[in-house]
Amino acid sequence: FTPFLSSGVRGAMYLSMTGAIFLTIFGNLAIIISISFFKQLHSPTNFLILSMAVIDFLLGFTIMPYSMVRSVENCWYFGITLCKIHYSFDLMLCLASIFHLCSIAVDRFYAICYPLHYSSKITIPVIRRLLAVCWSAPAAFAFGVVFSEAHASGIEGYKILVACSSSCPIVFNKLWGTVLFTVGFFVPGCIMIGIYAKIFVISKKHMHVMNNMPGDANTDVRSQLSKGKDRKAAKTLSIVMGVFLICWFPCFFTILIDPFLNFTTPLVLFDALNWFGYINSTCNPFIYGFFYPWFQKALKHIIRGKIFNPHSSTTNLFTKNQSQ
């Protein structure tokens, strides 16, 4: 049973959700343009951030509009085939996000904990292989599970529910609900938390070493150990990770426990938790914009149309006294 919504409530929902979609699309598009256009931003870490922004952009452009109609109208108007495609892409993009966050955590681990070996370990070919895994593994899992309907195997009345209720329900049986929560969320989340905890411990040790080094010590070592921007990047990306975990944990946890509660979770609650997860993709560009001065400067260049000027792709985005 889904409650009837008045025209006023539906209008407010459409307005707020459209606003979230707009911010998600254009916020992540700004990240994509900034990193793609400005050569100074072509680094391994930023290529991972670029790929994650593409994921968030696709979620806002291809998934959220259909979910908005389903949420407001309490009905799926687009047919069973598109339901499966929508469901598959939704699951794929969510899993791809957490895979990217794991890759970013590994990148920051090497940059801060092993700075002297970072450039030889984390190269562009390595990043390409990481990105291939981050996209292909979630795609294979999501499309395989959804189109085989393994996620709903053994659920009594699932086919009748889909065929007769004009809905596109988010349903996982006990096995696949546990697999999804464990492999797609719990294990990667623990890995990321462990890596960032290690990063901050090592970072403090590096600061202690640097503060106790004599003034005439090897300047290369000092400069490697004093990578302030690397530590700041790790802190910023740990916030991105924290927001992701907070936004998606309620949805993942509900998927885990719902089959053990005989699927008694109200569809309205499921839908609300799913949208809470979507909001993560809306937040990421604002986190980057707040913590990364290079993104603020790049955004000013984009808005003012300076990217159309000759040689603007080589603009220095890191100089404090740079002309705006």
Automatic annotation (TrEMBL):
It comes from the Eukaryota. InterPro entries: GPCR_Rhodpsn (IPR000276), GPCR_Rhodpsn_7TM (IPR017452), TAAR (IPR050569), TAAR_fam (IPR009132). GO terms for cellular component: plasma membrane. One of its GO terms (molecular function) is trace-amine receptor activity. The keyword Magnesium does not apply. The chain crosses the membrane at residues 12-35, 47-67, 87-106, 126-147, 175-197, 236-255, 275-295. Keywords: Cell membrane, Disulfide bond, G-protein coupled receptor, Glycoprotein, Membrane, Receptor, Transducer, Transmembrane, Transmembrane helix. It is a multi-pass membrane protein. Residues 27-288 form the G-protein coupled receptors family 1 profile domain. Pfam families: 7tm_1 (PF00001). PROSITE patterns: G_PROTEIN_RECEP_F1_1, G_PROTEIN_RECEP_F1_2. It is found in: Cell membrane. Belongs to the G-protein coupled receptor 1 family. This is Trace amine associated receptor 2 (gene/pseudogene). It comes from Pelusios castaneus (West African mud turtle).
